[in-house]
Amino acid sequence: MSWGGPGFIVAIIAMSTLGWVFTTWIRARHGYPIENEWSGVASRTDPDADRKLALLIGENEKLHGKISRLEERLAVLERIATDPAERTARDIDALR
User: Fold this and answer.
1) pTM for this one?
2) 48-80: pLDDT as tens digits
3) Is residue 45 packed enough to be buried (19+ CB in 10 Å), middle (13-18) or exposed (0-12)?
4) SS3 for 42?
5) What digits encode the pLDDT tens for the residues 14-45?
6) Which residues pair with 41 in a beta bridge?
7) Contacts of 50 (CB under 8 A, 6+ apart)
8) CA 32 to centroid of chain Cα atoms
9) How many other C-beta atoms can be found within 10 angstroms of the C-beta atom of residue 87?
């Protein structure tokens, strides 16, 4: 095979094309967006993605509320632990 002959040129073009096909296949298989030469992007869509997102948002809101309540309780416990005993006893007597 001559280095400047048409067989060598065809072999280089074939290797380039096969490399491009292989990398595109790998990207598509692992969920990466596929770009073409005209700046278009094709990506695999997950039909359950919206449902998963809604569940995660709901769980996040629930956990945020739980943390807020725990912070309030912790502040009360810190106040009880740091206040003098006389003031705590006086507050308890005032509630009776």
Assistant:
1) 0.44
2) 777 888 899 999 999 999 999 999 999 988 888
3) exposed
4) strand
5) 999 999 899 888 887 887 777 766 666 666 66
6) 35
7) none
8) 15
9) 9
